[in-house]
Write a structure and sequence with these properties.
Layout: H1 2-14, H2 36-41, E1 52-54, E2 59-63, E3 75-81, E4 91-95, H3 104-116, E5 120-124, H4 149-173, E6 178-183, H5 185-194, E7 202-206, H6 212-218, H7 223-231, H8 236-242, E8 260-265, H9 273-282, E9 287-291, H10 297-300, H11 302-317
Parallel strand pairs: 4-5, 4-6, 6-7, 7-8, 8-9
Antiparallel strand pairs: 1-2, 2-3, 3-5
Helix pairs in contact: 3-11
Amino acid sequence: MFSKIIDHYALHSLHKKKSLETQFTVPILSTENISREEFYHTGILNFNTEINADYHSNTYNFTSLIATEFPNNDNVKGEVFLQNNNPDTPNIIFIHGWRMNSHSKLKSIYHDKMSNLGWNLYYFPLPYHMERTPQHSLYSGELMISANMDRTVHAAKQSIVDLRTLIHWIKETNDGPVVLVGVSLGGWITNLAATLEAGIDAIISVFYANKLSESIWNTIPGKYIKADFLNSGIGYEELANRWKITDPSGGLPKIKQDNILLISGKNDQFISLEDADYLWQSWGKPARHVYNCGHSGIVLKQKKIAKDTISFIQERVLKTL
């Protein structure tokens, strides 16, 4: 009950900022006759692109291979902290949640603990978030997930292509394994990437979603987006069909099942446990923790999340090198 109350309070705060006008546009994108591999590879022969890294200021940046109408969204700028040149040093890519306007929550969970282990750390900004937020947007992430169905799918595609660009660059410049750690929306992107990119060595997905349509339609965070759809005459079945290509359960991971860790909250009010269960089962039940908490466990269970994540990387990834 306590965790549910905390989640509801957090949801009330979340909705203080909402779109002031409809984001709905009539969808024209159809993905029914295109394979997931083709859609997320976009015909690009490789993901090599120039990445500028300034290790003195702990930043990297590159231009997205996917262009949008917003130039700042197409400039991918993140933080990088190189700790060790040992060839076995893991390279951890952190992927944040929806609406986050900084990486502070991820850093509070992981940064000092992993830095002390000498691991290389990369913070990846999702489309339309943080410095990638268009000037007219009311909040970080407003344009990534909305009633604009086509733009939402396109944002998922841009997320995967940008992430694969970063992964390939790391593989070219470092010998250690690449591990994705995603939280909330970042967990959804992490899981989707695992079904498409063989260069990933392990994933840890925390309080993740599987079907974005399920999260929008049946949980409180999506209530205003759902209302936007209903006011525009869009029902759940059409939404689920148009967003199906973004469901991680639509594919199998390209990495070893032993290198997958899924973490969920039993009382999560942001993401349904049933949706999380569905992905876990469709992937053959990889390693999993279900905490006795809600989505607020991102704050309340920080020590446990960090401990379970680090132990998994040490025992499942580093011991097999």
